[in-house]
Amino acid sequence: MAVFSGVSGIMDSLSSGRVAQTLRQVFQEAEQADRPLMEQFVNGDVDEQSLGAVIDQHFAEEQRDLRGFYHGYVNNYLNVTPEYGRFLYQCARVRGATRIVEFGTSMGVSTLHLAAALRDMGGGRLIGTELEPSKAARARTNLETAGLADLVDIRVGDARETLADVGGEIDLVLLDGAFSLYLPVLKLLEPHLKTGTPILAENAFDHDNEYLAYVRNPANGYLSLPIPISEGRGNEFTVVTR
Ligand SMILES: C[S@@+](CC[C@H](N)C(=O)[O-])C[C@H]1O[C@@H](n2cnc3c(N)ncnc32)[C@H](O)[C@@H]1O
Questions:
Q1: CATH class of the domain at 82-240
Q2: Measuring CA to CA, how many Å separate 50 from each of 41, 138, 156?
Q3: pTM exceeds cut of 0.70
Q4: Any ligand 1 atom below 6 A from CB of 104
Q5: Residue 117 above 80 pLDDT?
Q6: How confident is the model at residue 3 (pLDDT cuts 50, 70, 90)?
Q7: 130 alpha carbon – ligand 1 mean position (Å)
Q8: Beta pairing partners, 128
């Protein structure tokens, strides 16, 4: 029987080595690239009412021109925070995940955390998808720098097409793409979800949200709640119960 025996044999690549070094670098780059965008929100004094208006506008723009809208953010990371990245890593480890699906890769910050968990558990497959080819290319470069590229398949295109075949049962899902597509993407993945699969959704804001209404209804085979990690970013944690 394996017993916990102190500090020898530590397997946590977030904390040291190539992955840790790459993460430090990409978080620095992200901070610079996204600072003006973040300042708009943090210093813009967004109260609940105006947040609702911002979300409504975001949904409307996605529906009007999804590709054009996200092309406007081609140089933005829009990445998860270090804290949330660590939580993703922990979820993958606690689940013993070997197949992970990620909707919305951007430059690969969340991908690095999830792929690191796969590496530390002995391997697996992460299928990610990104609309913007140049972002997918930068994510691949970051994964190569971290030594994780062999675990990841980043599919360029619209998740509704690229995730139609994920090749088997899924142990963990991250939804971090177009806000308005969380429910259609979840439904696309549903045949491959297992009892106990966690689904983590970023930017699932509690405002007229069909995705939240669906996963918060236990009759649909989920248990779900908002989590206070990276507060204010609409982080929902859902577990498949069926
Ligand atoms: C919030 S960012 C993802 C951040 C990333 N998870 C990270 O932590 O670094 C959302 C990304 O989803 C992409 N996206 C939006 N709609 C998409 C779709 N339908 N299919 C694939 N990617 C999409 C956008 O281009 C954008 O780069």
A1: alpha beta
A2: 11, 33, 33
A3: yes
A4: yes
A5: yes
A6: low
A7: 6
A8: 102, 154
